[in-house]
Amino acid sequence: MKKYNIKDFNMKKYNIVRFRFNKSDVGHAYMGGISGGKFIKKGLTLAEAKAHCNDPQTSSETCTHSNGTRRTFEDRRHAEAPWFDGYKEAK
Questions:
Q1: Three-state DSSP class for 13?
Q2: Structural domains counted in the chain
């Protein structure tokens, strides 16, 4: 007999999405990759998604690690363009 976990029943799941702003228009979000942005993580609980997005390393404005600061400059089309991780409900 299969054992069930509370996570198996009606728990909404969330995906972490990386958003980038278009360098020429910082007021308008540019979302590349998969529809709605680039998926970073999938199938998280709401608490896990919020914890990820509250980490200072998930935004170009507050990131201090070399991987994150390099991400800000790696794509020539969006050089020096701000980015941040957000979450949305998985479908």
A1: coil
A2: 1
